[in-house]
Amino acid sequence: MRFQPTIQEAPMPASSQPGAPEGSVSTAAHFTPQFHPHALSGANLLFLALLSVFGAVIGLQLLVTLGITPNTSIIGALVAMILARIPLQILAGYRSIHFQNLAQSATSSATFGAANSLLLPIAIPFLMGRPDLVMPMFIGVSLAMLLDGYLLYRLFDTKIFPASGAWPPGVAAAQAIAAGDKGGKQAALLGAGMLVGAIGSWCKIPMAAFGTAFIGNIWALGMFGIGLLLRGYIPFDINKAYIPHGVMIGAGLVALVQISVVLIKKSPKAEATAERHAGTTLCLGTAAYILLAAGVSLLAGLYVEMSMGMLIAFILYAAFAAFMHELIVGIAAMHAGWFPAFAVALITLLLGLLLGFPVTALVVLCGFSVATGPAFADMGYDLKAGFILRGHGSDSAFELAGRKQQLIAAMLAFVIAIPVVYIAHGIYFSQGMVPPVAKVYATTISAGAVPGIAQQLFIWAIPGALIQWIGGPKRQLGVLLATGLLILNPMAGWAVAVGIALRVLLERLGGDKVRNGMEVFAGGVIAGDALFSFFNAVVKFGKK
Predict the structure, then answer these.
(1) pLDDT tens digits, residue range 230-248?
(2) What distance in Å separates the CA atoms of residue 20 and residue 27, rounded to the nearest whole number?
(3) Alpha-carbon span 422 to 390, nearest angstrom
């Protein structure tokens, strides 16, 4: 009998169709296992727990020493593949591509959770000379991280965050796992892509951006590339003029309206059920963030410094900022594989400064906003990988069962990351080791509101809103343009441009016949870039 899970948390896959679409991994489309591996059973639990500790420690070390958080998902899958080759019965289950999917989910969740969602936020009050706020912040961001991952789990495969979305790192992970299992021409093509990705990364070329150009929405990626190039070559610092921030504010607000329209728009019965579920999830998320913001404000003692009216206004704004940060980061991650979490959190901080909240409240706001987004985006990557490996929703019950196990694996990783960070943060902070990005937030709070910033944000919010409105909710042109403008990496812009040009050329010459090979190769390029970046960062850390 087929495993029939009793799941209430997720909607039925909106993209469930018989068979996988052409041009994609279809490992599970021809053979669906009766049972999906369980994350909490026996040796699986032990292995995932160890991977989670490893991922958390690596994430913390690299963030405080180099200021980066690498994508470790493929590392977890590779470890499972290697152990599966050892002739021991207890390790035989690790050969399953679905268990390897759980391994990559746990590893990346622990890395991003520990570094971006936990350590970075609590470093802000420490740098501001308020160590008394570290523990209230730690409690709040730990709960926000768990909520972050759970919300994406519920929103995945809806019109807001469809399973058919690009989610490039997820595609790369799925291609790597499937190729390792099947071998043959696909493995050779993936290996060639990984080699090209690693060599390009060694040459300082952002190969993840190049590979993403072959997978994502071409319009969204085009705007992303334009934003990167404009930021790199406009002959003045648009960041100091707050142009990218204004564009993102306008685009983000319109994106929120577009999401609301999608949810209330009449749809066929099956889609309507999924969208009602998404609407319920957004309402649940909003209420939860309001409660979390209120709880952190209470623990931080903000009621002493603020009137009741201002305190209520702050709680509502903090919840709104966290939720908007989450959605914008998720949209950018889905389309481009990059998420501007640092910049979007800075925008919410700038608006908080303009609203006149006191310093203590701004510290809480910044940390709370920073914590949301990374776990949300990473969960999307992992669920996309699992969706591909399970056959693109061809078996609804199996898809939902696997998705639930991925959630359990991710939550296990988050829960393990919490005590790891609790133990490690005191060691790091006592040695003056803090994430470099946290210093930017602390400096911004200390500097206060800059004269003229409100006018600049308002002026540039107008074109951001217009571009987002013209592109519509599927293309997200405004959000992707703003994402590119917020990132100082013109080489990535050229990588996207070259990738799009090659993609258009190949599709015109070969049509659908070349699409499958193109996506496998692109997945290899992204995987090769991720692997080289990870091991290069580890080597640099070892030399320090």
Answers:
(1) 999 998 888 888 888 888 8
(2) 9
(3) 36
